[in-house]
Write a structure and sequence with these properties.
73 residues, alpha+beta, Conserved Hypothetical Protein Mth637, Chain: A, 5-stranded mixed β-sheet, 1 helix, 5 strands, 19% helix
Length: 73
C-alpha cells in the first residue's frame, strides 16, 4: 500500500492528520537533518498503522516535503 505524506518538520507537537484515504499530513519535532525527519515520520506512521517500522519504506521524496511511503502488509 502506498501512502502520500506531506511533512512539517520543526513543529511544536507531533501529530498525524488524515486528508484522504491514502494522504496524510505529519507534523514532527525533528529537524530535516541527515534523515532525522524521515525516520521520525516512519515512527509516527508505524504507530498510526500499528505496523513495525521495518515494514514502512520511504519510496520517493527523500529531500522533499511531499513523500511517498510504502507499507508492506
Amino acid at each position: 500500500m502506498l501512502v502520500k505524506v506531506k511533512v512539517f518538520p520543526n513543529s511544536k507537537k507531533e501529530e498525524i492528520i488524515k486528508k484522504k484515504e491514502d494522504s496524510f499530513e505529519v507534523k514532527i519535532k525533528q529537524k530535516p537533518i541527515q534523515g532525522q525527519a524521515n525516520q521520525a515520520v516512519i515512527n509516527v506512521l508505524s504507530l498510526y498503522f500499528n505496523f513495525p517500522e521495518k515494514r514502512i519504506k520511504l519510496v520517493k521524496g527523500f529531500r522533499q516535503r511531499n513523500k511517498i511511503f510504502e507499507i508492506l502488509i
